[in-house]
Every structure is written in C-alpha cells, then in structure tokens.
Amino acid sequence: MIESRRRLADNREIIYFDANGTPGTREATDTRDLPVTTTHSECRYDALLGEWVVIASHRQSRTFLPPADQCPLCPSTPERSTEVPEPEYQVVVFENRFPSLATSVDPDLPAHVSGAPLAALRPGFGRCEVVCFTSDHTLSFAELSHERARLVVDTWAQRTTELSATDGVEQVFCFENHGEEIGVTLSHPHGQIYAYPFVAPRVRKILDQVRAHREAQGGNLFGEVLSSEREAGIRVVTSNQHWTAFVPAAARWPYEVQLFCHRQVPDIPALTDDERDAFVDVYLDVLRRFARRFDTPMPYIASWNQAPTRVGRDDWWLHLQLFSFRRAPGKLKYLAGSESGMNIFINDTTPEGVAEALRSVVVA
Ligand SMILES: [Zn+2]
User: Fold this and answer.
1) Predicted TM-score (pTM) above 0.90
2) Which fold has domain 202-360?
3) From CA 330, how far away is CA 190, in angstroms rounded?
4) What is the pLDDT of residues 153-198, one digit of tens each?
5) Conformation bin of residue 198: beta by default, left when phi > 0, alpha when psi is -120 to 50
6) Where are the domains of the chain?
7) Which are the catalytic amino acids?
8) CATH architecture of 2-200
9) How far is the centre of ligand 1, averaged over its atoms, from the C-alpha of 72 (Å)?
10) Which of 85, 159, 244, 331 has its CA 20 to 30 A from that of 28?
11) CA-CA distances (angstroms) from residue 36 to 9, 33, 39, 98, 149?
12) Phi, psi dihedral angles at 113 (to 5 degrees)
C-alpha cells in the first residue's frame, strides 16, 4: 500500500491509499477558496448514566444529499472542484469538514456545564475522518472487487494505528452508514472513522462482562460465544478458515450479523494478511446477501468493535457488527418507546429465521 499525504485548501489533511504497483502521482492541489471552519464541540458528562454526550452545534449547516453531479466525494474535474483534488483515486481519507470532534478545539473550558456542577465539561477533542472506498459514485461496498475491499481493510488498519497513537484518543471507531433510510447525507460509497477521547459505553459494558466472566469461570466470553455458535451452526450465515458470520442469539435488529475473527486479536492492525483476505471474502459475501435479501438493497450500519487504545486490550476480541433497520420490504424498525426510552430492544424477527433467510439468498 502506498500512502500520499497532502493538505486541502483549508489545511485539512487528505491521505491517498493506493495498492502496491499502481502509484498515482497524487500531486493535484486544492484550488478552492475554502474558509477555515472552526469546531465548537464539547463533551458533557451525564452524571446519572455515567456517559459522555458530544454537543456539536456547528454541524447544522452541513451538506445534505446533494445531486450526484455535485457530490463532494467524487474526484475533481476541470469544471468542478470537490473534496478530492485528484481526477481519480483508489481509497482516500480526509478530515471531515464538519467534524463532531476535532484536534483543534479550544482546550480552555470551564470544568463543568454552567449551573450544573455534576455535568463535567471537556473539549470535543478527537478526529472525524471520511473514507471513500472508490472514486466510482455508483458502486456500493458490496460491489467492490476483492482487491479494493482489501485496500479498504489496510486503510482502516493504518488509520487505527495512527489515531490510536494520538495523545488523548481512547477509542477508534471505523463504520459505514449505508442507505438513505439510515440517514446518510451523501450517497457516494464511503465510511467514516471517529477517534473518541473516551472509551465507548458499549465497549466498556462488554469489557465489564468479559472481565466478570473471566474472574468467575475463567475463559474468554467472546471466544465461548464464538465457539458455541460455530458448533451449533443454526445461526451461522457463512464462514471460512479465519472468520465466522452469525446472527447473534439475542439479536436486537431485524437483520443483524456479527463477523468474528477465529483468533483473538484486539483490533484491525493485529490481523495477518491471510486474516484480512479471509475477512474480505466473508464480508463481501454477507453484504451481497444483505443487498439481495429484498427487492432493493438493504440499508445497513457496519460497525467495527475494536479494543480501546489503552485499556482492556488483552480481554478484547475484534468483531464487526452489521445490522439493518429494515424488517420487511418497505418496513423499517423505529427505535420507539421501549428502545429509545429504556434501551430495551424488541425484535420482530427470530435470529434463527434471519440466519436461514440469509443463507438461502443466492449470491451469484
Ligand atoms: Zn460521488
């Protein structure tokens, strides 16, 4: 993989990732007259829940579903400059123009929210990056070649390594929101990477469970879940030598699949070449099943669960969660009272039935 680092007109970083043997020159410069944006986000502590909330009020004016001929993620042409100055690219990463978290935020904040001494306040420090998977506007991840998908995996690994080494970053989250129904504001095939200044609540909660299990019974909870799913097989969608994709026994979403590496590794950078290639095979297979399950491709969220950068790394087990809100053609699951109010999920599909349905999809 070849990295080329450049700066956009407003000094944001842009990094091109090209497969070995196919170097572009990547010398195009950003000629736009772009004002430098300032990020005014802050993290406020919810003392009752023990969780941080990011307040990013400057994001209201961001681009919302522009027509395809105004896509800011397409390559630049002589007539139109976009976020990517080059005339074509393979995979490219750049800092989000409207980030929720930024390294340049004002570090001097009061210790707590005005009038709320229990609500600690800290800068919205971190980084939000955009990852474009291809310069072809019309493709989806499910339609990428093996080689391109592998370049994306290597890009996630490189970004995870670099962001994890940044002082103050506690969690690196690579994800993709796919489909307008899920709130995607740009249809160009892309994902995002967030570097958070705290450990994600989901990760903290899982680590508590894993630790308690180890102390009570020995053994790694992740590994036991994986081996029992592999043995039972009824919720397995597909697998190969290094990865298994299964519908979790207590799935929350109408369509939910978790992809587990067979070897315990904390994060994407720890995967071997063989494991990365094997991941691509299983992931493209599952994505294509998602795309063909109904008449139109399912919207989905792909969410990498990586170890925090500094704590709990020996206990963690890398996996990807892939889930959709769609429960039937034209029907979406809404997070209503029970889910939004009490965080208790009520799922209208059975995990075993979903696994069977996904196994039955004919993947050409
Ligand atoms: Zn585009």
Assistant:
1) yes
2) HIT family, subunit A (3.30.428)
3) 24
4) 999 999 999 999 999 999 999 999 998 777 677 889 999 999 999 9
5) beta
6) 2-200, 202-360
7) 190
8) 2-Layer Sandwich (3.30)
9) 6
10) 159
11) 8, 10, 10, 11, 33
12) -65, 140
